[in-house]
What does this fold into?
Amino acid sequence: MLSYVHGASAVPLIGETIGAHLDSVVARWGERPALIVRDQGVRWSFAELLAEADAVAAGLLALGLEPGQRVGIWSPNNAEWVLTQLATARAGLILVNINPAYRLHELDYALNKVACRALITASRFKTSDYIEMLGELAPELATARPGDLHAVRLPELRCVVQIGGQSPGTIAFEELQRLASGSARVRLAEIGRVLQADDPINIQFTSGTTGSPKGATLTHHNILNNGFFVGEAQRLGPDDRVCIPVPLYHCFGMVLGNLACLTHGAAMVYPGAGFDPLATLETVAAERCTALYGVPTMFIAMLDHPDFARFDLGSLRTGIMAGSPCPIEVMRRVVAQMHMREVTIAYGMTETSPVSFQSSVDDPIERRVSTVGRIHPHVEVKIVDGEGRVVPRGTPGELCTRGYSVMRGYWDDAARTAEVIDAAGWMHTGDLATIDTEGYANIVGRIKDMVIRGGENIYPREVEEFLYTHPAVRDVQCYGVPDDRYGEELCAAVILRDGASLTADELRRYCEGQIAHYKIPRYVRFVTGFPTTVTGKVQKFVLRAETAAELGLSETRTA
It folds into this structure.
């Protein structure tokens, strides 16, 4: 048997846009609960959610935005994020997800790479003052007429919409709905009639070993269908309430969360702006949630919380654990202590909308931790060797995906798109995997050097390029080392310039405020050279082993 699987299915793909599908959802489940955001006191039915989203969509059109233009959102989880996701889809605007942990360097790149015309931003979150950072990039905002920004460093950006306040030059989010004139609503309806399922609707930034982030461009067809089949795997229905503490800027929140719920009439339940184990436990108990999402570290934090035992979690049935491999003991505790007997494991990548494999609610626990399940409906996967030939079952090779879920490409980057999507339409993931005789896949390694820290993807080359900007750094290599809590932590091996001096703390302080906190290396080693192959390629696996030995770290992952 060859390592090729196809998710043949009698359930058809959805052939309409997100906006059109939302209309049918409201017609079917209009009065059922759709969105609950506990820290904001939001409790909307599907009919109310549609009305709110359409008011935002018409407001964006009233500002002069046109279908196909890009609208960035830079915010933690809140009701406004969900409204923006649906409003942009209804208006044919392309939503650009910006990680709330991004700092100046990353924000500057993201906004300019895809030429964002508008930015919807929170006022602040944790230690990030978004308005202050925007002011550093675009000091012209302080004196600009709202909706008519002209900034030297952000030449395409015209509108800044602020959630939770109104600073000079910005438009308050609530004002969008007041701008929704009759003519803008007529225009919205006209757009809805001509939008196509294959139109791009979302850009999510991802990277690799090649440097700067790439904008994976996804269509209505990509993410609507992927969300639907993710919900099918959990057997979601209109009586389900899904607790979603994972971030919305990531596919986990906006596709596996929002669109899985939307397509099944299930309620989206958000405990707060960011993950907090206590708030999540309180939400599950108070709202009688039937499903819960998270990466393994989130589940560990909830299980180990001192108040865990006082919460009644008996309503839970299913959910998703993804982002990094799950230790079998954690899975057993989730099933036994959180009542999630039907929890599923999912695997994918942003470029494939994201899920390609998912375990079944009926799979034994051992299967759910040692594999990533079986192929998703309407998706093809093959495992190939270095020459592109399909390998026998059980043999490791590169996992390649083809089907409805594969992205349109990287925004404005045909060369890098061609590097990963071949002439036959296969997306080359860079992940090393095996498929067994029963069709279960196991991820055994990564061709790319991506580090997964507690579910956050860290791309070493991106961090390396930033560290190169430090005047004392001559050369640097970043790589992951084992960590009991997060699965992996980032380490930077640094070669200093002649005569330069630098400490690990000084290098980390240099990163603060410039790159996201989770990308700042936990470990810094100062070295005089790197182990290389005869052709000069740095052997990161040797660096990883050396660091692990020096620090006494051991590999604890089971999958």
